[in-house]
What does this fold into?
Amino acid sequence: MEWASQLCENRHIGSKMTDSKYFTTTKKGEIFELKAELNSDKKEKKKEAVKKVIASMTVGKDVSALFPDVVNCMQTDNLELKKLVYLYLMNYAKSQPDMAIMAVNTFVKDCEDPNPLIRALAVRTMGCIRVDKITEYLCEPLRKCLKDEDPYVRKTAAVCVAKLHDINAQLVEDQGFLDTLKDLISDSNPMVVANAVAALSEIAESHPNSNLLDLNPQSINKLLTALNECTEWGQIFILDCLANYTPRDDRESQSICERVTPRLSHANSAVVLSAVKVLMKFMEMLPKDLDYYGTLLKKLAPPLVTLLSAEPELQYVALRNINLIVQKRPEILKHEMKVFFVKYNDPIYVKLEKLDIMIRLASQANIAQVLAELKEYATEVDVDFVRKAVRAIGRCAIKVEQSAERCVSTLLDLIQTKVNYVVQEAIVVIKDIFRKYPNKYESVIATLCENLDSLDEPEARAAMIWIVGEYAERIDNADELLESFLEGFHDESTQVQLQLLTAIVKLFLKKPTETQELVQQVLSLATQDSDNPDLRDRGYIYWRLLSTDPVAAKEVVLAEKPLISEETDLIEPTLLEELICHIGTLASVYHKPPSAFVEGSRGVQHRRLPARAGSGESSESPDVGQPVGAVPDTPPAVIPSQGDLLGDLLNLDLAPPTSSAPTVTPSMQMGAMDLLGGGLDSLLGGDIAGSPAMGAGLASAPVVMPASLGAPVSSGLDDLFDLGGGVGMPTGAFVVPKTIWLPAMKAKGLEISGTFARRAGVIQMELSLTNKAMSVMTDFAIQFNRNSFGLAPAGPLQVLTPLSPNQTTEISLPLSNVGPVMKMEPLNNLQVAVKNNIDVFYFSCQYPISILFVEEGKMERQVFLATWKDIPNDNETQYQIKDCHLNSDAATTRLQSSNIFTIAKRTVEGQDMLYQSIKLTNGIWVLVELRVQTGSPNYMLSVKCRAPEVAQLVYQCYEMVLKN
Amino acid sequence: MISQVFILTSKGDHLIYKDFRGEAGVDAISAFYESVTALSGDQPPVVMTHKGMHFIHVRQGGLYWVASTKTNASPFTIIEFLNRLTALTKDYCGTLSEKSVRANFALIYELLDEMVDYGYIQTTSTDILKNFIQTEAESSKPFSLFDLSNVGLFGAETQQDKVAPSAAASRPIMANRGEQGGKNEIFVDVIERLAMVIGSNGIIMKADIEGEIRVKCYLPNCSEMRIGLNEELSIGKSQLRGYGSAVRVDECSFHQAVKLDEFDTYRIIKVCPSQGEQTVMQYQVCDDLPCAPPFRLFPSVERDSGNRLLMYLKLRCDLPPKSAAINVSITVPVPKGSVSLSQELSSPDQRAELQPKSKAVLWEIPRFPGGSQLAALFKLEVPGLSSASLLEVGPVSMCFELPKHTCTGLQIRFLRLTPTQPGLSQRWVRYVTHSDSYTIRV
It folds into this structure.
């Protein structure tokens, strides 16, 4: 340190008085006293006075009035006094800009001083005086100082450029200081390099595109060289700068990593973390099969472990970072589970973070150890920690399937302690375990129910209610249990109310006979007595669902729930990538991107990890795959947090809104009891027509989901086909032209015409709605009556915009065939209700049976033969089709497009015999023999079917297909 | 980038306020103080945010040492910096307290000015700083040899009060300048912290030792110091030197001024110590401990016919007979419903009490010689005692100090100074092991 040695003589013996006295309370007139002392001739007295002034300044007293007097003390050769005066100047110059000018001369003079310490002091202080007028005077001295022979002055000047840039960016650019600063990156003194890098990095952040820090292999090399020589703080600047560089290829990446790795053993944790950041980023580019990649992974673990032996403040910050690293590359710390075990004297915030990381690292290999720890934690004193430990046991069960049983028994042990908050947490997590492993651990329900009375927290109550509702059929007194909650319904929190409503509806659907009163009670509580819109809406939805279509209600409410994901609280992958680029910074502690908490332009650029070089796998996050049983290709879905889980659960109950549930809402003026009564009847099988219907509906329940989910997708496709159909696709199935089903005069101005078609395996009801009234029509909905083949709308009637007068809209409504069944007369009759804002209208129409012919209707020859023989001859019906001029081949093709499949053809004495099969949506097979006499326009049709009623319709269908 | 640095007393009085970047006003101090005092127990106090300002602080010497920033700065950098600032303040002012900071505010301002420029940390090394610092330290009390009387504590943090100034550091490093009182002394402390979890079956479930070699130097000009460690010291899991009872550490890191050219062969650390206190080497050992755990507990817990819980604890100290543990305290969590305690202890200098707030029995033993065994019987009155209450007993945690003992067996063979110091230069080497977290499960 060349500048240092010559300065030693500047030291002198200070006063023997203690500075504390300066803090004694000021009395009136103190300012005058100070003024006098400041103007004293004695240096010692002056210095004491300035100290007093600064003491007052520190405690927040306004001593700005002394500005001129203090500035007068500036011209001194006493360095200690000079420093004190400068301290004062920096604080008050801003509020006294005119006075500050008085100091300029001294500054300029000091910048020429032979003593480098004074030169540096002057340039440092001038930069801190944020007064515009001063900056003009600063330029010349600064230019000289940037080229000063003493590195101490140069490094101070480098920082001063950043200061000046903040005050007047234009000036800095005009004066060419940025170029000088760039030159300083190649300075011989590492401290100067470090400060230049720091200053340039900061300036570059406010000019994102300026390319100020022109990082290229040469400059990187310079930085790496300086890295080994400069102080720990300088190393941090350089490493942070390196982290912004993107190497050209994996080899450059590796060579930088090799030169950065020694920093990992530095005693300063900030250096270590900056190095970890560089390595985590550049590692992304290394091929994973490279030996060096493995070496690097091994080298990253020890420094991270070492951080955990630091004081709690650093430990906490380190744990937040490790949490990110573990999510990105769990393999780094997979063998280090033990270091995350909590110590009894860790502060609670450290304990909680450790717990979180323990769960992330839990795997089949270490689960026994982890569980043993967690069980210990669950008996500790700190309530928050105990709660989280209990939750952690549940998370282990969900994450590591092999441990689930042990986790459940551990939780049961804990419930036995009857410690209130332990029991409640245990119940909340057991609910999650039930979600993950349905029908496996229900034996514990009895134990849970014993603790019903002790639950006083909403989350635990809601979880318990969910369990009771979900397993209502196995809990004998489920109705009593739920009823007991119902008493104080309005005092419960919303989540409990919602859960109670759902649970009772579930119970009702499972045990309809005994629980009618209960369900009516809860529905009326939710809809009539509650002000909460969520609760009311859900109540109404259930109510309508139960009253209009109990079968659908069952399908919706008791639908199979998707399994919950094994990892919770995962950070969303793109955010994780960005946070990895910000390791060691505040962002990594908050787990938020810098743009979320840094004002202004700084740090707003989103950083991304570089792509892996030379491989096609792009930048997909490579190691998200968990040690155990994870599917690497599909990153686990993110469950926001434990707290929201319940909310999700609740929503799941309502998740399939597009299912086959009819969406017509009966008009509200109908008595509520009636509505419910109807629903009840059909559920209880009291309605004779309803009972087979229900059976059919239930039997087909498992197929509901796929069918209805498929519908909206394929309907989109069908719209495409529709276009083609308009042009006249030769091979398309025949579609009857639209006919008017509902004349406008019968429906207050709404005219509906329509037809049916089968497109790509989906039955479509094609409707034209025309508004012939004078007012706009909105709120369309449609519902079918029960019908012979269980047709029902697969989705709501989607009229996107209100229908203006004289406007027509074309709608394709996909239909499913899983609705309630009732034999109609004629068989293909369909009764439809359409609702709009004006009224509900009813009409009936008939659909061609061909829409029910499925694509898989081609029978094996052998089967055909056997079936044909098997069906009694009584069931055979014969028809004659007249005036058909197609030959047998053309007929085959045309019939085929309507899913009538020709299995065999025989020619006997100039007569073609076509054997054909048809399968209906409800699984009924229709076998047909079609005789075509060459040269005769008349065909003979023999239809054989176990359900002879359809024969007539099949005949009509042949007529239509062959003649059009 | 650091925007401001300030030091506050626990009551919120401003001791030091330094603004580096002019980004925020003095009101940041009160904003900080409000947030820090409003924190509830389970919120991490390390990083706090208020209106775009982020505060990072450490507590040392009963004071808040705070840095604020407006950028996405590194909390590691700032915490390390604040720790260095406290260490330097201690080095320069002798002790770390409200009194010493008040007395030396001009010195601390000067230090801050040299340490940080425009929020960029410049240096924290005493060697460099001593060239710039003009202000003399004000020692709050004159240095006296009596302060050194308590050799057992000196240089090392105690378990009870981690921020207590070590006696060795209770005089300013520069005080010998122009004054007669200073002595040419150098202290080398080997301090180990032992964390251990022992299962109910007596098996060690987890053990680790964090150790450091700390040097406190009062020599004005010491060009090089050579510290010789055990020659058979091995580093890493696989490496083995010599036979039998090798001293082993898993990892170690060194101060950046340490030269290691003789370390690999002779286990000699070479360092040119700056004046003041520094940690020259840190090391740690996980899992495989070279020694037996210092304490073994044999508990038996049962309920008598009534509402009484009987705990019979037998504690054995497995240190070598020449050593002893001091300030041993044992904390046994007991059922929440416990109302009173009666005890039978084996000697009058021991004490035991039921802590009403945390519901734990605290048993204190001032001195516990190696190889001996102590027993205690605790009878607790627990209304409504149930078998589940028994589960609430434990785990037992212990605090203690083991003077003149290192668990790793690390020793300093020699301490040589070159050039040989003229006149009085005293060299002190001390060892101490503290319990960091010593838990025995019941």
Observations:
- Chain B touches chain A through 94 residues (CB under 8 Å).
- Residues 173 and 352 of chain B are 42 Å apart (CA to CA).
- The longest helix of chain B spans residues 75-93.
- Residues 148-188+202-288+416-423 of chain B form a domain with the Immunoglobulin-like fold (CATH 2.60.40.1170).
